[in-house]
TrEMBL record:
Residues 411-427 have a biased composition (Polar residues). GO terms for biological process: cellular response to osmotic stress. It comes from Buttiauxella noackiae ATCC 51607. This is Mechanosensing system component YbdG. It is a multi-pass membrane protein. The keyword Cell wall biogenesis/degradation does not apply. InterPro entries: LSM_dom_sf (IPR010920), MS_channel_C (IPR049278), MscS_beta-dom_sf (IPR023408), MscS_channel_2nd (IPR006685), MscS_channel_C_sf (IPR011066), YbdG (IPR030192). GO terms for cellular component: plasma membrane. It is found in: Cell inner membrane. Keywords: Cell inner membrane, Cell membrane, Membrane, Stress response, Transmembrane, Transmembrane helix. Residues 408-427 are annotated as: Disordered.
Length: 427
């Protein structure tokens, strides 16, 4: 400022201290406006127009996240700080206020520039398959939180004129309170790192977590929460750390394998199970899928009975085919020949332990698609066929009596009773 006063004095212009300060502040203000106009109205606007027409992805992402805008604002703060040091008297109140304000501006926009840079890196990473599988959003949010705390401490220390170390040492006494306040972000940051390092979850995965009522696709993995869009289009929010502390099911392995499992049982009425008669065997021989099995099985049984001199008088003295065993073989062959069932994955038809609801026959196979609608259609087609052919084997599906069964039985009983009474007994 002394140089300015001396410069003006050479032209015969004498200014008092207050006026000279106002003149200097006016010069700084005008210069800042000029720099702002050049950066924001000329340079950045030209850059944005070029980015909109450019095929380069990184230019578009940088423009969308306002990275250069915030860097330009940071540069303006640096220019004001330099001007305050050069033009104003060192140690004056005006100089200190302007320098502190400029430094606070620089720290604030430096923090915002860091936020924009992290957003650019995150958005750019989502465009590539390798990095899109990594839940970087929670990690970047953790970096933003830590950076905000550091810059906040520096700004407060600059305002009160104390060293940041003093504030940090004072925060030690509040560590327990801070841990309580920032418990979720801290746990979420640690969980995000574990999810990323172990590749436990990524955007788009089908997540099932009954504890939180979640069953759908992961749409967002944040620092403190994970959002899941359920199949009924509701949104479930899960604490990020719960994915590490609790168990959840990730169906991405099923999607990547290309096959989705069918695991469903039908219950056979055990009173309908019996040995096949010769007529039944002959009738089932007409089935293309069963003929090879019946031929080989009949020869095996015949050879066994001849070797062991089975007389055939009692079924306990000889081996025979059962209708339920033949039915199980038929279902296996049917699935082996089904065009929508994968043959390179586990495929079997097995018996489970019988119970009050009959003998469960379980179908265990994998479809050649993971699309939900196609999978349900294939599964329905298979079981519709099973229910339709079960009667061909002399078997019955176990089913608890319905109201219609009870009414039918009651009506039949009344008719029987009524037909057995004589006309005289009714008078």
């Amino acid at each position: 400022m002394k140089d300015l006063v001396s410069f003006l004095s050479a032209f015969g212009i004498v200014l008092d201290p207050t006026t000279s300060i106002l003149v200097v502040l006016g010069i700084i203000f005008v210069f800042v406006l000029i720099v702002h106009f050049i950066l924001h109205r000329v340079v950045l606007r030209t850059f944005e127009k070029r980015a909109q027409t450019s095929q380069h992805l990184w230019l578009q992402i940088i423009t969308e996240n306002k990275l250069f805008h915030r860097l330009a604002s940071t540069l303006q703060g640096v220019i004001v700080n330099i001007q305050a040091v050069l033009w104003l008297q060192k140690g004056s109140d005006v100089s200190e206020i302007l320098i502190i304000a400029a430094q606070l501006w620089i720290m604030l926009y430096s923090l915002l520039s860091l936020f924009s840079l992290l957003d650019v890196i995150y958005n750019f990473s989502q465009k590539f398959t390798i990095t899109s599988d990594i839940p970087l959003k929670g990690i970047f949010q953790g970096v933003k939180l830590i950076s905000s705390l550091i810059i906040g401490i520096m700004m407060i220390s600059r305002i009160i004129g104390q060293s940041p170390a003093i504030l940090i040492s004072g925060l030690g006494a509040m560590a327990a309170v801070l841990m309580l306040v920032f418990k979720d972000p801290i746990l979420g940051l640690v969980a995000g790192i574990q999810l990323s390092a172990n590749r436990m979850l990524k955007l788009g995965d089908w997540l099932e977590m009954p504890k939180f009522g979640a069953d759908g696709a992961v749409t967002d993995i944040g620092l403190t929460t994970v959002k899941v869009r359920n199949w009924d289009n509701t949104i479930t929010t899960i604490p990020t750390y719960a994915l590490v502390s609790d168990a959840f099911k990730n169906w991405s392995g099923m999607s990547q394998s290309g096959g989705r499992r069918i695991k469903r049982s039908i219950n056979i009425d055990t009173t309908s199970i019996h040995f096949l008669s010769a007529d039944e065997i002959q009738r089932l021989m007409n089935a293309r899928l069963l003929k090879p099995y019946i031929d080989s099985r009949s020869k095996e049984i015949e050879e066994y009975n001849r070797t062991h001199n089975s007389d055939g008088v009692s079924v306990l003295n000889a081996r025979s085919m059962t209708n339920v065993g033949t039915f199980r073989v038929y279902l296996t062959e049917y699935l082996q020949n089904h065009p929508r069932i994968r043959k390179d994955m586990t495929l079997m038809v097995r018996q489970l332990a019988p119970g009050a609801e009959g003998l469960p026959i379980e179908i265990y196979a994998f479809t050649n698609t993971v699309a939900w609608l196609e999978y349900e259609a294939i599964q329905a087609d298979i079981f519709e066929h099973i229910f339709a052919v079960v009667d061909e084997f002399g078997l019955r599906i176990h089913q608890a009596p319905t109201g219609n069964d009870i009414r039918t039985r009651h009506t039949s009983s009344c008719r029987c009773v009524g037909s057995s009474q004589s006309p005289e007994s009714l008078t």
